[in-house]
Design goal:
Number of helices: 11
Mean pLDDT: 95
Strand content: 15-25%
Structural class: alpha/beta
Low-confidence stretches: none
CATH topology of the largest domain: TIM Barrel
Number of domains: 2
Strand order of the largest sheet: 1-2-3-4-7-8-9-11
Protein backbone atom coordinates (compact mmCIF):
# COMPACT_ATOMS: atom_id res chain seq x y z
CA UNK A 1 0.00 0.00 0.00
CA UNK A 2 1.35 3.40 -1.05
CA UNK A 3 0.67 6.37 1.22
CA UNK A 4 0.06 10.04 0.45
CA UNK A 5 -0.73 12.94 2.75
CA UNK A 6 -3.93 14.88 2.03
CA UNK A 7 -4.50 18.43 3.35
CA UNK A 8 -7.71 20.48 3.41
CA UNK A 9 -6.07 23.64 2.11
CA UNK A 10 -9.01 25.90 2.99
CA UNK A 11 -8.43 25.49 6.74
CA UNK A 12 -5.93 28.32 7.13
CA UNK A 13 -2.86 26.42 5.91
CA UNK A 14 -0.14 29.01 5.27
CA UNK A 15 2.74 28.84 2.82
CA UNK A 16 5.08 28.18 5.75
CA UNK A 17 2.84 25.26 6.79
CA UNK A 18 2.87 23.87 3.26
CA UNK A 19 6.66 24.06 3.10
CA UNK A 20 6.97 22.21 6.39
CA UNK A 21 4.51 19.54 5.22
CA UNK A 22 6.27 19.09 1.88
CA UNK A 23 9.68 18.83 3.54
CA UNK A 24 8.33 16.23 5.98
CA UNK A 25 6.69 14.19 3.20
CA UNK A 26 9.93 14.15 1.21
CA UNK A 27 12.04 13.23 4.24
CA UNK A 28 9.69 10.55 5.59
CA UNK A 29 9.09 8.74 2.32
CA UNK A 30 5.43 9.50 1.62
CA UNK A 31 4.58 9.07 -2.04
CA UNK A 32 2.78 12.37 -2.41
CA UNK A 33 1.22 15.50 -0.94
CA UNK A 34 -2.27 16.32 -2.18
CA UNK A 35 -4.71 19.08 -1.33
CA UNK A 36 -8.35 20.01 -1.63
CA UNK A 37 -9.39 22.71 -4.10
CA UNK A 38 -11.63 25.11 -2.18
CA UNK A 39 -11.88 28.84 -1.50
CA UNK A 40 -14.28 28.61 1.43
CA UNK A 41 -13.33 27.34 4.89
CA UNK A 42 -16.39 25.67 6.37
CA UNK A 43 -19.98 26.45 7.18
CA UNK A 44 -20.10 28.59 10.32
CA UNK A 45 -16.32 29.06 10.44
CA UNK A 46 -14.55 32.36 9.81
CA UNK A 47 -11.00 33.57 10.20
CA UNK A 48 -9.42 30.80 8.12
CA UNK A 49 -8.04 31.32 4.64
CA UNK A 50 -7.39 29.30 1.49
CA UNK A 51 -4.62 29.60 -1.05
CA UNK A 52 -5.35 28.78 -4.69
CA UNK A 53 -4.71 25.07 -5.19
CA UNK A 54 -2.85 25.14 -8.50
CA UNK A 55 -0.79 28.25 -7.77
CA UNK A 56 0.27 26.63 -4.48
CA UNK A 57 1.15 23.33 -6.17
CA UNK A 58 3.36 25.20 -8.62
CA UNK A 59 5.30 26.64 -5.70
CA UNK A 60 5.67 23.22 -4.07
CA UNK A 61 6.72 21.70 -7.38
CA UNK A 62 9.68 24.07 -7.54
CA UNK A 63 10.57 23.41 -3.91
CA UNK A 64 10.41 19.59 -3.92
CA UNK A 65 12.23 16.91 -5.88
CA UNK A 66 10.49 13.57 -5.25
CA UNK A 67 6.91 13.63 -3.97
CA UNK A 68 3.92 13.59 -6.27
CA UNK A 69 1.56 16.57 -6.12
CA UNK A 70 -2.10 16.99 -7.00
CA UNK A 71 -5.69 17.84 -6.12
CA UNK A 72 -8.51 15.83 -4.59
CA UNK A 73 -10.42 17.24 -6.36
CA UNK A 74 -10.67 20.24 -8.67
CA UNK A 75 -14.33 21.14 -9.33
CA UNK A 76 -15.30 21.81 -12.93
CA UNK A 77 -17.32 24.79 -11.68
CA UNK A 78 -14.16 26.74 -10.79
CA UNK A 79 -12.26 26.69 -14.09
CA UNK A 80 -12.86 25.97 -17.76
CA UNK A 81 -11.33 22.58 -18.58
CA UNK A 82 -8.65 24.09 -20.82
CA UNK A 83 -7.52 26.30 -17.93
CA UNK A 84 -7.30 23.29 -15.60
CA UNK A 85 -5.37 21.32 -18.22
CA UNK A 86 -2.94 24.22 -18.66
CA UNK A 87 -2.44 24.76 -14.92
CA UNK A 88 -1.75 21.07 -14.35
CA UNK A 89 0.60 20.87 -17.33
CA UNK A 90 2.53 23.86 -16.02
CA UNK A 91 2.95 22.20 -12.63
CA UNK A 92 3.92 18.98 -14.39
CA UNK A 93 6.71 20.82 -16.19
CA UNK A 94 7.93 22.59 -13.05
CA UNK A 95 7.95 19.30 -11.12
CA UNK A 96 9.52 17.35 -13.99
CA UNK A 97 6.60 14.97 -14.22
CA UNK A 98 5.13 14.61 -10.72
CA UNK A 99 1.61 16.02 -11.03
CA UNK A 100 -1.75 14.24 -10.76
CA UNK A 101 -5.22 15.67 -11.32
CA UNK A 102 -8.39 14.79 -9.45
CA UNK A 103 -11.56 16.13 -11.07
CA UNK A 104 -15.06 16.44 -9.64
CA UNK A 105 -18.43 18.04 -10.30
CA UNK A 106 -18.39 20.50 -7.38
CA UNK A 107 -20.86 20.41 -4.51
CA UNK A 108 -20.48 23.26 -1.99
CA UNK A 109 -23.22 25.75 -2.84
CA UNK A 110 -22.34 28.33 -0.18
CA UNK A 111 -18.75 28.49 -1.43
CA UNK A 112 -19.94 29.20 -4.96
CA UNK A 113 -22.34 31.88 -3.77
CA UNK A 114 -19.75 33.69 -1.67
CA UNK A 115 -17.17 33.87 -4.43
CA UNK A 116 -19.34 34.32 -7.50
CA UNK A 117 -18.93 30.88 -9.09
CA UNK A 118 -22.06 29.73 -10.94
CA UNK A 119 -23.70 26.87 -9.07
CA UNK A 120 -25.82 24.59 -11.23
CA UNK A 121 -28.18 21.80 -10.30
CA UNK A 122 -26.65 18.37 -9.82
CA UNK A 123 -27.58 17.21 -13.33
CA UNK A 124 -25.83 20.13 -15.00
CA UNK A 125 -22.76 19.85 -12.76
CA UNK A 126 -22.45 16.21 -13.74
CA UNK A 127 -23.03 16.99 -17.40
CA UNK A 128 -20.25 19.59 -17.27
CA UNK A 129 -17.91 17.05 -15.68
CA UNK A 130 -18.75 14.59 -18.46
CA UNK A 131 -17.59 17.18 -20.99
CA UNK A 132 -14.64 18.58 -19.02
CA UNK A 133 -12.90 15.25 -18.43
CA UNK A 134 -12.58 14.32 -22.13
CA UNK A 135 -11.45 17.88 -22.92
CA UNK A 136 -8.60 17.74 -20.40
CA UNK A 137 -7.67 14.27 -21.64
CA UNK A 138 -7.85 15.32 -25.30
CA UNK A 139 -5.78 18.46 -24.86
CA UNK A 140 -3.09 16.43 -23.13
CA UNK A 141 -2.96 13.62 -25.68
CA UNK A 142 -3.90 14.96 -29.12
CA UNK A 143 -1.79 17.17 -31.38
CA UNK A 144 -4.82 19.35 -32.10
CA UNK A 145 -8.11 18.99 -30.31
CA UNK A 146 -11.65 20.05 -31.14
CA UNK A 147 -14.76 19.54 -29.05
CA UNK A 148 -18.39 20.46 -29.59
CA UNK A 149 -20.50 20.02 -26.48
CA UNK A 150 -23.43 21.64 -24.74
CA UNK A 151 -21.25 23.67 -22.36
CA UNK A 152 -17.78 23.76 -23.94
CA UNK A 153 -16.57 24.24 -27.50
CA UNK A 154 -12.96 24.07 -28.63
CA UNK A 155 -11.81 24.47 -32.22
CA UNK A 156 -8.54 22.99 -33.43
CA UNK A 157 -6.72 23.78 -30.17
CA UNK A 158 -2.95 23.38 -30.32
CA UNK A 159 -2.11 22.67 -26.70
CA UNK A 160 1.61 23.21 -26.11
CA UNK A 161 3.69 22.29 -24.30
CA UNK A 162 2.38 18.82 -23.66
CA UNK A 163 2.75 17.35 -20.17
CA UNK A 164 6.08 15.84 -19.22
CA UNK A 165 4.38 12.56 -18.26
CA UNK A 166 3.47 10.26 -21.13
CA UNK A 167 0.83 9.70 -22.27
CA UNK A 168 -0.49 12.21 -19.70
CA UNK A 169 -0.56 12.92 -15.95
CA UNK A 170 -2.67 10.45 -13.96
CA UNK A 171 -6.35 11.41 -13.93
CA UNK A 172 -8.23 10.61 -10.72
CA UNK A 173 -12.03 10.30 -10.61
CA UNK A 174 -14.27 8.96 -7.90
CA UNK A 175 -16.55 9.50 -4.96
CA UNK A 176 -18.79 7.40 -2.75
CA UNK A 177 -21.46 6.63 -5.32
CA UNK A 178 -20.48 4.72 -8.45
CA UNK A 179 -23.52 4.85 -10.69
CA UNK A 180 -23.71 4.25 -14.43
CA UNK A 181 -22.54 7.76 -15.37
CA UNK A 182 -19.48 7.58 -13.13
CA UNK A 183 -18.73 4.05 -14.33
CA UNK A 184 -18.66 5.25 -17.96
CA UNK A 185 -16.45 8.22 -17.11
CA UNK A 186 -14.04 6.07 -15.11
CA UNK A 187 -13.99 3.40 -17.79
CA UNK A 188 -13.12 5.82 -20.56
CA UNK A 189 -10.72 8.24 -18.93
CA UNK A 190 -9.62 7.48 -15.35
CA UNK A 191 -6.27 6.13 -14.30
CA UNK A 192 -7.32 5.93 -10.66
CA UNK A 193 -10.59 5.59 -8.79
CA UNK A 194 -10.59 7.28 -5.39
CA UNK A 195 -13.34 6.94 -2.83
CA UNK A 196 -13.88 8.71 0.50
CA UNK A 197 -14.48 6.90 3.78
CA UNK A 198 -16.42 3.71 4.31
CA UNK A 199 -15.75 0.38 5.96
CA UNK A 200 -13.48 -2.05 4.10
CA UNK A 201 -16.38 -4.07 2.69
CA UNK A 202 -18.10 -0.88 1.48
CA UNK A 203 -14.90 0.31 -0.17
CA UNK A 204 -14.40 -3.06 -1.86
CA UNK A 205 -17.89 -2.82 -3.37
CA UNK A 206 -17.16 0.62 -4.81
CA UNK A 207 -13.92 -0.65 -6.31
CA UNK A 208 -15.77 -3.54 -7.96
CA UNK A 209 -18.24 -1.15 -9.61
CA UNK A 210 -15.40 1.07 -10.80
CA UNK A 211 -13.61 -1.93 -12.34
CA UNK A 212 -16.87 -2.91 -14.04
CA UNK A 213 -16.75 0.48 -15.75
CA UNK A 214 -13.26 -0.30 -17.01
CA UNK A 215 -14.35 -3.68 -18.32
CA UNK A 216 -17.39 -2.20 -20.07
CA UNK A 217 -15.11 0.16 -21.99
CA UNK A 218 -12.74 -2.62 -23.04
CA UNK A 219 -9.95 -1.68 -20.64
CA UNK A 220 -8.13 -4.07 -18.35
CA UNK A 221 -9.77 -3.74 -14.89
CA UNK A 222 -6.53 -4.73 -13.19
CA UNK A 223 -4.86 -1.59 -14.57
CA UNK A 224 -7.16 0.71 -12.57
CA UNK A 225 -5.50 2.10 -9.44
CA UNK A 226 -7.93 1.91 -6.50
CA UNK A 227 -7.47 4.31 -3.60
CA UNK A 228 -9.13 5.58 -0.44
CA UNK A 229 -9.07 8.98 1.24
CA UNK A 230 -9.82 9.02 4.96
CA UNK A 231 -8.83 10.91 8.09
CA UNK A 232 -6.24 9.75 10.57
CA UNK A 233 -5.39 10.42 14.22
CA UNK A 234 -2.51 8.27 15.38
CA UNK A 235 -0.19 8.21 18.38
CA UNK A 236 2.47 5.85 19.62
CA UNK A 237 0.00 4.93 22.40
CA UNK A 238 -3.77 5.07 22.82
CA UNK A 239 -3.43 7.96 25.28
CA UNK A 240 -1.37 9.94 22.80
CA UNK A 241 -3.98 9.26 20.12
CA UNK A 242 -6.77 10.53 22.39
CA UNK A 243 -4.87 13.74 23.08
CA UNK A 244 -4.79 14.42 19.33
CA UNK A 245 -8.46 13.55 18.91
CA UNK A 246 -9.42 15.94 21.73
CA UNK A 247 -7.52 18.69 19.92
CA UNK A 248 -9.36 17.98 16.66
CA UNK A 249 -12.69 17.90 18.49
CA UNK A 250 -12.02 21.30 20.04
CA UNK A 251 -11.58 23.01 16.66
CA UNK A 252 -14.58 21.42 14.94
CA UNK A 253 -17.66 23.69 15.34
CA UNK A 254 -20.03 20.84 14.43
CA UNK A 255 -18.37 18.10 16.47
CA UNK A 256 -21.01 17.64 19.16
CA UNK A 257 -20.25 15.63 22.32
CA UNK A 258 -16.78 14.11 22.34
CA UNK A 259 -17.89 10.49 22.66
CA UNK A 260 -20.22 10.83 19.67
CA UNK A 261 -17.43 12.48 17.71
CA UNK A 262 -15.03 9.70 18.67
CA UNK A 263 -17.48 6.99 17.62
CA UNK A 264 -17.95 8.62 14.21
CA UNK A 265 -14.20 9.02 13.66
CA UNK A 266 -13.41 5.49 14.76
CA UNK A 267 -15.94 3.95 12.38
CA UNK A 268 -13.81 4.23 9.25
CA UNK A 269 -10.78 6.41 9.93
CA UNK A 270 -7.21 5.37 10.70
CA UNK A 271 -6.98 5.86 14.45
CA UNK A 272 -5.39 4.74 17.67
CA UNK A 273 -1.97 3.48 18.59
CA UNK A 274 0.53 2.56 15.89
CA UNK A 275 -0.47 -1.09 16.09
CA UNK A 276 -4.21 -0.40 15.89
CA UNK A 277 -3.74 1.95 12.95
CA UNK A 278 -1.62 -0.63 11.14
CA UNK A 279 -4.25 -3.31 11.73
CA UNK A 280 -6.95 -1.11 10.19
CA UNK A 281 -4.75 -0.31 7.19
CA UNK A 282 -4.16 -4.01 6.58
CA UNK A 283 -7.94 -4.48 6.45
CA UNK A 284 -8.20 -1.81 3.79
CA UNK A 285 -5.29 -3.30 1.85
CA UNK A 286 -7.12 -6.63 1.84
CA UNK A 287 -10.20 -4.80 0.49
CA UNK A 288 -8.17 -3.60 -2.49
CA UNK A 289 -6.86 -0.20 -1.38
CA UNK A 290 -3.65 0.23 -3.35
CA UNK A 291 -3.06 3.81 -2.28
CA UNK A 292 -4.19 5.53 0.90
CA UNK A 293 -4.65 9.30 1.11
CA UNK A 294 -4.31 10.19 4.79
CA UNK A 295 -6.28 13.36 5.47
CA UNK A 296 -4.20 15.27 8.01
CA UNK A 297 -6.63 17.53 9.85
CA UNK A 298 -4.02 18.56 12.44
CA UNK A 299 -1.75 19.70 9.63
CA UNK A 300 0.81 21.38 11.89
CA UNK A 301 1.39 18.14 13.80
CA UNK A 302 4.42 16.81 11.94
CA UNK A 303 5.12 14.32 14.72
CA UNK A 304 2.00 12.38 13.70
CA UNK A 305 3.39 12.05 10.18
CA UNK A 306 6.61 10.72 11.68
CA UNK A 307 4.70 8.11 13.69
CA UNK A 308 2.82 6.95 10.60
CA UNK A 309 5.97 6.77 8.47
CA UNK A 310 8.21 5.06 11.00
CA UNK A 311 5.83 2.97 13.16
CA UNK A 312 2.67 2.31 11.12
CA UNK A 313 3.47 1.93 7.42
CA UNK A 314 6.39 -0.50 7.92
CA UNK A 315 3.86 -2.90 9.47
CA UNK A 316 1.75 -2.89 6.29
CA UNK A 317 4.44 -3.93 3.82
CA UNK A 318 7.29 -5.30 5.95
Amino acid sequence: MRACVMIEGQQGVTWRDWCALADACERLGFEGLFRSDHYFSARGVSGRGATDAWTLLGGLAARTSRIRLGTLVSPVTFRPPALLAKAATTVDEISEGRVEVGMGAGWWEEEHTQFGFPFFDVHERWARLEEAVPIVHGLWTQERFSFEGTYYRLHDAEFLPKPVQHPHPPLILGGKAVGARMQRLIGRYADEFNTVGGLPEEVAGRFARARDGFESEGRDPSSLVTSLMTWFFVGTTEDEYLEKLHRAHAIDPDAGPFEDYRAEIERDCIVGSSDRAASRLREYAAAGVQRIFLNHELYDDLEMLEVVATDVLPQIDP
